[in-house]
């Protein structure tokens, strides 16, 4: 005899049935636009639909040049204009097939968002999550502790923003390469890492956690930094430079239709749409309509949102919080400093040695991406000096000589030279599309 869970109402079960009967339909159109491939997605609406679609497209390394999103009611319809990383239309058939596999009816029937392209499987690794106050040399200390505890670092991603640090680290046992599941050993790892994180300056509580199963690293990092309140202003970090680099975010209510309208303008970069949609989702907002334009050096985004209960933003404090959280979502992935790419034979303790050399030469890591491909370590570090200023070229060359000139390379970052938008030129997509897409909403 089947049993109904008391926590599920008939309405909730009916909604699930509707979604199962109407999985996303994906259309890939390579002829409608001369500059981009159009990907159209429509299905029965559910919470998280927009994030799921954007996450899949982002994980496939596609650049979203334009997007038109509508999900008011029980149905959502999204249109994305995408290119590859070089700005070309998608000419390879397998790319279209991958999109269909991730978002099409068959995929939707069998998988959840956790099985998206960019999700890191952790069957052979243990996931350690770390949050705390950032400081020069912190990453070196973390990797040194893990190496001393006979842990091999298989992959990791580290973000820093507003004096806070969040990291997701995949470790395996040094001797057998398998995941670490001994409770006593895990407790020791967590305690020692927590001691390192706290140091003697952390005004907030540092945190270590062990995660199991599969996860999306970047999605998780957004959640961790949001929970750590990295959007709160740090008096020690504010100043003229920080103010000039702020994205332009405006939040106002659209009274006739009961929406809150969020306008955003900032220099464009990969994964920008993913970052903003993640944050709105984490803040428990639903995106009903949106228009995205990112065809030049700057990106323009406009969202029509409400709370999950259907109400718009109702206070000035909440309005300011949305602004600060979206600013943080954009800036926490921003790459400050010189980009160093390390590629060479992987070995246990490699990261501990490399980051120690960084620390001894006065370099501070602001962001890191660590991966292992077979026997090769493929790592990227963004570094500044201990004060957050650009590193002198002679210091970089000294570090390269110590680590290996053929292993560590300097990569140019053109995005770091982009000029920030000026306050006097706030862009409004509502004005641009007054006679087009948004006029039907009566705003």
TrEMBL record:
Q: Which UniProt keywords apply?
A: Repeat
Q: Would the keyword Amino-acid biosynthesis turn up in this protein's UniProt record?
A: no
Which Pfam families did the record assign? ACT (PF01842)
Ranges of residues in domain ACT: 38-115, 127-204, 339-415
The Gene Ontology terms for molecular function here are: amino acid binding
> Is Disulfide bond one of the keywords UniProt gives this record?
no
Q: Which PANTHER family match?
A: ACT DOMAIN-CONTAINING PROTEIN ACR, ACT DOMAIN-CONTAINING PROTEIN ACR4-RELATED
As for what it does, the entry says: Binds amino acids.
What protein name is recorded for this chain?
ACT domain-containing protein ACR
């Amino acid at each position: 005899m089947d049993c109904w869970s008391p926590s599920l109402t008939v309405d909730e079960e009916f909604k699930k049935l509707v979604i199962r009967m109407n999985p996303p339909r994906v259309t890939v159109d390579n002829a409608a636009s001369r500059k981009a491939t159009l990907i159209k997605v429509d299905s029965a609406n559910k919470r998280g639909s927009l994030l799921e679609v954007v996450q899949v497209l982002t994980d496939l390394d596609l650049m979203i040049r334009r997007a038109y999103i509508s999900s008011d009611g029980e149905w959502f319809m999204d249109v994305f204009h995408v290119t590859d990383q070089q700005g070309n239309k998608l000419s390879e058939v397998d790319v279209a097939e991958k999109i269909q596999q991730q978002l099409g009816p068959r995929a939707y029937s069998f998988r959840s968002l956790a099985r998206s392209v960019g999700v890191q499987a952790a069957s052979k690794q243990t996931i350690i999550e770390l949050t705390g106050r950032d400081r020069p040399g912190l990453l070196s200390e973390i990797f040194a502790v893990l190496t001393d505890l006979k842990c091999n670092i298989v992959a990791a991603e580290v973000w820093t923003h507003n004096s806070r640090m969040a990291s997701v680290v995949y470790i395996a046992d040094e001797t057998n390469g398998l995941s670490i599941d001994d409770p006593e050993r895990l407790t020791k790892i967590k305690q020692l890492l927590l001691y390192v994180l706290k140091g003697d300056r952390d005004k907030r509580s540092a945190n270590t956690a062990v995660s199991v199963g599969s996860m999306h690293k970047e999605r998780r990092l957004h959640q961790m930094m949001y929970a750590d309140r990295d959007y709160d202003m740090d008096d020690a970090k504010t100043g003229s430079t920080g103010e000039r680099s702020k994205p332009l975010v405006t939040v106002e209510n659209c009274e006739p239709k009961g929406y809150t309208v969020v306008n955003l303008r900032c220099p464009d970069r990969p994964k920008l749409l993913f970052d903003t949609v993640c944050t709105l989702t984490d803040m428990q907002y639903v995106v009903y309509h949106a228009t995205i334009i990112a065809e030049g050096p700057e990106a323009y985004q406009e969202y029509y949102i409400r709370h999950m209960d259907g109400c718009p933003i109702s206070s000035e404090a909440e309005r300011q919080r949305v602004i600060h959280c979206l600013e943080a979502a954009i800036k926490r992935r921003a790459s400050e400093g010189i980009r160093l790419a390390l590629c060479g034979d992987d070995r246990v303790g490699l990261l501990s040695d490399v980051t120690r050399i960084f620390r001894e030469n006065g370099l501070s890591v602001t962001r890191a991406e660590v991966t292992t491909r077979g026997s090769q370590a493929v790592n990227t570090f963004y570094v500044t000096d201990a004060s957050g200023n650009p590193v002198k070229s002679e210091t970089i060359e000294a570090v390269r000589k110590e680590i290996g000139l053929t292993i560590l390379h300097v990569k140019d970052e053109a995005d770091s030279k982009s000029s920030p938008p000026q306050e006097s030129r706030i862009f409004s997509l509502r004005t641009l599309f007054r006679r087009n897409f948004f006029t039907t909403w009566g705003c």
